[in-house]
Design goal:
heterodimer; A: mainly alpha; V-type ATP synthase subunit C fold; 3 domains; B: mainly alpha
């Protein structure tokens, strides 16, 4: 049965793939003379709908409401929202404007439960992290350390969920995200010359990039870390990081999209649904890049260079 | 009268109608799910996906045909059941198996191919015919099994 799951959802997603933006559309947006022109082009392509991963998630969730496997896609947002709640509790400000949607969490309950230190009422995947992060920020008042702890916990939760509920595709997805984040974190922390304790909290580790080795090389300095990473299977990507972190970021997004593309030919299972969500995220990111670059007067060539790979 | 012989022949007819029918029902349902997914987004594709949904339904009809032919051959339908030996009964049971087994599995396989065809229709409706042809290829094996079952049923000496 598992091999023929979600036939309905996958077929619907395939019908909706026709409204995804193509490279030609992106070029039209880049060449557009005004924001109004971009908006009218989007409206024409999307049939009046806006580009929003929240809408896409709602649709996917409607078609596959019981899929635990899909929840992993929102873990990044969920753990970000946990950070927002902790900061709002410490600062006494409302967290509403810092929330990212879509999310697996009921944000009102998240705030209430953490405020009341009632972690048991939270979903299992975030329960322990919420309690530990709260104690960490209260004990150390170190926002950076707490953020790093939560980021690392996000990756661990993704790996755990992928191995519990996920297919091979999902495991690869969780692994790629972990590797990309670990490389970025290790590189940044090596530049900041952070101590071992901090690194142990911030780096997650994966089957491809072992946590202990990453920490050891990071402690030895950026050059040692880069040599270590260049000898790994991510050598080419790490050379991009050496040139510019923005290029490495683009590589990370593109490699996730390449993984998503492998699901395009499938007719069953959650993979095409996940791929469609990833495609909608890439679309959103590309639109943000175009808007920001235009705002800052970047030339068309620079904008094109920064464009992420698209699904169609 | 050797009742075991005729019982075995009837079991054969039941198997043929039952397994081919189950296979078709599951497959048509599966393609229906996929078709509904497409129609929920684009109702104009209803007629195109409907053809794909019908394709895996044929195995159920073949199973029914074999059951009727077998029951007719052994006289059950006319009310004059032939006095079959156990060996003859077993032969009729064996004759029904190609349609029962191949019918079930080919219906399931055709259902999956038709779902993939629904995907083609969803993304590129102008290539809908290719999806139909690909799914229809699976039909070949159901037809071969149908032929074998018919040949056996009419050539068993009674």
């Amino acid at each position: 049965m598992s091999t023929i799951k979600y036939a309905n959802a996958v077929a619907a997603v395939k019908a909706m793939e026709n409204t995804l933006l193509t490279r030609n559309d992106m070029e039209q947006f880049i060449n557009a003379t005004s924001k109004a022109e971009i908006n009218s082009l989007i409206s024409a392509k999307k049939g009046g709908e806006s580009i929003s991963s929240e809408n896409v998630w709602e649709m996917i969730h409607e078609y596959a409401p019981d899929s635990k496997e899909l929840e992993i896609l929102l873990y990044k947002n969920d753990f970000h929202n946990l950070k927002a709640v902790l900061k709002s509790i410490i600062s006494g400000r409302s967290p509403e404007q810092y929330y990212i949607r879509p999310t697996n969490l009921d944000l009102i309950h998240l705030f209430e439960n953490i405020s009341a230190k009632d972690y048991d009422s939270l979903p299992e995947f975030i329960r322990d992290t919420a309690g530990q992060a709260y104690r960490l920020i209260v004990d150390t008042s170190d926002g950076q350390l707490t953020d790093s702890f939560i980021d690392s916990a996000t990756l661990k939760a993704m790996q755990k969920s992928a191995s519990e509920f996920g297919s091979e595709f999902m495991k690869k997805y969780a692994n790629l995200i972990t590797v990309c984040c670990d490389i970025k974190t290790a590189y940044r922390l090596s530049k900041m010359k952070k101590q071992k304790n901090f690194l142990e909290t911030a780096i997650c580790g994966s089957s491809e990039l072992d946590k202990d080795s990453l920490i050891r090389e990071t402690l030895n300095g950026t050059e040692s870390l880069m040599n270590f990473l260049e000898s790994s299977s991510y050598g080419e990507a790490v050379r991009l990081l050496n040139e510019s972190p923005a290029q490495f970021e683009k590589w990370c997004d593109d490699v996730i999209m390449e993984l998503a593309e492998t699901a395009r030919m499938k007719s069953f299972g959650t993979e095409p649904l996940i791929a469609y969500y990833i495609a909608s995220e890439a679309e959103e990111k590309n639109m943000r890049i175009i808007m920001v670059c235009r705002e800052f007067g970047a030339d068309k060539e620079t904008i094109t260079e920064r464009m992420r790979k698209l699904y169609v | 009268m050797n009742s075991l012989g005729i019982t075995l022949a009837i079991v054969g007819a039941v198997c043929s109608a039952l397994f081919a029918g189950i296979g078709s029902a599951k497959a048509v349902g599966l393609v229906g799910e996929a078709a509904a997914g497409v129609v929920s987004v684009d109702p104009s594709k209803f007629s195109k996906v409907l053809i794909l949904q019908l394709l895996p339904g044929t195995q159920g009809l073949y199973g029914l045909l074999i059951a009727i032919l077998l029951l007719s051959r052994v006289g059950v339908l006319g009310g004059n059941a032939v006095d079959l030996t156990t060996a003859q009964g077993l032969m009729f049971l064996a004759a029904s198996l190609p349609m029962a087994v191949v019918g079930y599995f080919s219906a399931m396989a055709q259902g999956k191919a038709a779902v993939a065809g629904v995907g083609i229709t969803a993304k590129k409706p102008e290539h809908n015919g290719k999806g139909i042809i690909m799914a229809a290829m699976v039909e070949t094996y159901a037809i071969l099994a149908l032929l074998v079952s018919i040949l056996l049923i009419y050539n068993i000496a009674i």
